[in-house]
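Per reviewer request, we include the raw input and output of the structure prediction for the construct analysed in the revised manuscript.
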Amino acid sequence: MYGIFHASFFIVVSMIWYESNFEKWIKKQMMETVFETTY
């Protein structure tokens, strides 16, 4: 029971962290792509 709860809690925390950092990562990837294609 504790293992299932711990796993679900970890998934929720990782999802929140992923959502908060997803836009930053997308912007970073876009900037790198633009930089590589223009130069």
